[in-house]
Amino acid sequence: MVRLDQFVSISGGDEALRSRLGSVELRLVSPPGAEERVTRDDVSALVALRMPDLASPLLWKGSSTISRIRVQGRPLDLQQLTQEGQALLEDWLRARVERFKVVPLSDRQIAEAESAADETATLRPFAGPVSARTALWVDLARPGRPARGGFPIWFAVEAWADAPVAATDIIAGTRLSAEQVSRSLQDIAALGPRPLLTDADIPESVAVAPIRQGEALTRDRFRQATPVVAGDEVRLRVQDGPMRVEAHGIALESGGNGQRIRVRNSGSGEVLVASVAGKGLVEVAP
């Protein structure tokens, strides 16, 4: 049993009325690890039952629900865990981005914790990445035993960091060049789990859809460029033991690394089958 004044702040009326309202008891029965939820309608119905002589209706401010988590049937202080989780998330961001903002997404009014149980609640280490909505997990376990379950605490996150962006509009099918990339401060949390392009990705990336100037460049918006495209001038390499011979040719087919394509030797005009070994390079077996 818990008293109403453990959940809500009561104002108005005289002291005797506030005391009567605060002493109204709620019976909350929940299994370990479950969340208790009490709504305004629940409380209003209980007050009407216990205090039928109450002339004035209840006027509410703040949250429409009251929640708390129970461990071994005893309440756990979610407010404290939320504060600790926010500090943990802010420490992680502080080492990685230029500026950030972390706000708990819960609008709950949390009751104070009762006596400790034999289970402990531990915030799971955060390894990233962050999203606009990011969860930190709380594990429930007895000392010396693996966690038997847990629950998330959600936060709204902004995380601003230097990121690659389109310096100009990029047309679908365009092979990216360094001149088309600039850098600016971007909210990488808004990008979710999509990784950004690296400098090494740029020369091997082809846009799969139009990209507007100023938009962040993430890997999901590009495909890897084909190393050899039909019509490209290529180097023909023949490796026979320690001896290597190279010539020039024209690719008659497109191909990715390891694929076999037809190539015309520019000197002899002979058409050969060669394996793509990199950008502009094919190898012919001796």
What can you see in these coordinates?
This protein has 286 residues and is mainly β. The protein has four domains: 2-73, no CATH class; 75-159, no CATH class; 163-224, Antifreeze-like/N-acetylneuraminic acid synthase C-terminal domain (Type Iii Antifreeze Protein Isoform Hplc 12, Alpha-Beta Complex), CATH 3.90.1210.10; 233-284, SH3 type barrels (Roll), CATH 2.30.30. The chain has three helices and 17 strands. The strands form five sheets. Strands 6, 7, 8, 9 and 10 form a five-stranded antiparallel β-sheet that branches. The longest helix has 17 residues, at 78-94. The model is unreliable at 107-116 (pLDDT under 50).
Proportion of beta-strand residues: 35-45%
- Please state the structural category: mainly beta
Uncertain parts = 107-116
Terminal Cα span: 86 Å
* Average pLDDT taken over every residue: 81
Sheet with most strands: 5 strands, antiparallel
Helix content: 10-25%
Total domains = 4
Rg calculated over all Cα atoms: 32 Å
Number of helices: 3
Principal-axes shape call: elongated
Order of H and E elements: EHEEHEEHEEEEEEEEEEEE
Number of strands: 17
